[in-house]
Amino acid sequence: MMNRAFLSVALLLLVLLPGAPAREDSPEYCVTPFSILVSNSVTNAPNKTYSTCVVYRGILLKGMRRLQKTNKGFRFTYTEDPTYGPYLQSVNGLKGNTKDRTYWELLVKQANETIRLNVGIGAFIPSENDQIILNFKEY
Ligand code: B12
């Protein structure tokens, strides 16, 4: 009886221990590497490329969060759309807006084909070695 109580407390402590990385943050689970290229078709500012990864069938948003945590040069914000989920609002301080009719377009380059994503950052699941393109664009 005593042993069981001790075990439960020990397990609880392990789970709550500060600094213990969540499963999705442990490098050994981050099995799908991919890159993110930031481009700007409005100003033609130079492209920037970053590397990140997701756990098995993890979503793009999580890979972007991981990158933001580990690389000070990459920043992004998003808003929550009630119908479609996370909407990418800004990248590295540059915000899309309705007045200028600009937005961050999501593309993926797989092998030699570039495809426009048909879902947002909260639903897309990157595959190994995908190149995700975040392209600032006018509509
Ligand atoms: C217009 C439109 C846009 C415009 C919206 C700008 C504006 N201020 O009008 C622009 C060009 C910016 C856009 C962008 C994208 N869109 Co769009 N868009 C539409 C469209 C044709 C109409 C939406 C609309 O006006 N509804 C009427 C208004 C009154 O309702 P609303 O809820 O206020 O509409 C808002 C949302 O729809 C939001 N929105 C638009 N697209 C997207 C996409 C995502 C992922 C989110 C979270 C929100 C969102 O913007 C609208 C205005 O604020 C729909 C298709 C359709 N016929 O519904 C696709 C649609 C919503 N878009 C879609 C997609 C995939 C995208 C992109 C991811 C495309 C891409 N690869 O870049 C990007 C978003 C990228 C990002 N930054 O996160 C998909 C969403 C599917 C899904 N389940 O995720 C749809 C359904 C089209 C499709 N392919 O089937 N889009």
The gross shape turns out to be: globular
Q: State the helical fraction.
A: 10-25%
| Proper CATH architecture | Beta Complex
Mean pLDDT: 90
Percent strand equals: 35-45%
How would you portray this structure in words?
The protein has helices spanning 2-16, 60-70, and strands at 32-40, 48-54, 76-81, 85-91, 94-95, 102-110, 113-116, 131-138. With 139 residues, the chain is of the alpha+beta class. The protein has one domain: Ferric Hydroxamate Uptake Protein, Chain A, domain 1 (Beta Complex). The chain has a five-stranded mixed beta sheet with strand order 2-1-8-6-7, covered by helices on one side. Strand 6 (102-110) and strand 7 (113-116) form a beta hairpin. It is globular. The site of cobalamin (B12) has 20 residues, from strand 4 and strand 6.
Q: What is this entry, summarized?
A:
The chain is of the alpha+beta class and 139 residues long.
Which tags fit this structure?
Transcobalamin-like_C, globular, Ferric Hydroxamate Uptake Protein, Chain A, domain 1, five-stranded mixed β-sheet, cobalamin binding, alpha+beta, Transcobalamin-like C-terminal domain-containing protein, Cobalamin_Transport, 37% strand, binds cobalamin, single chain, signal, three-stranded antiparallel β-sheet, 139 residues
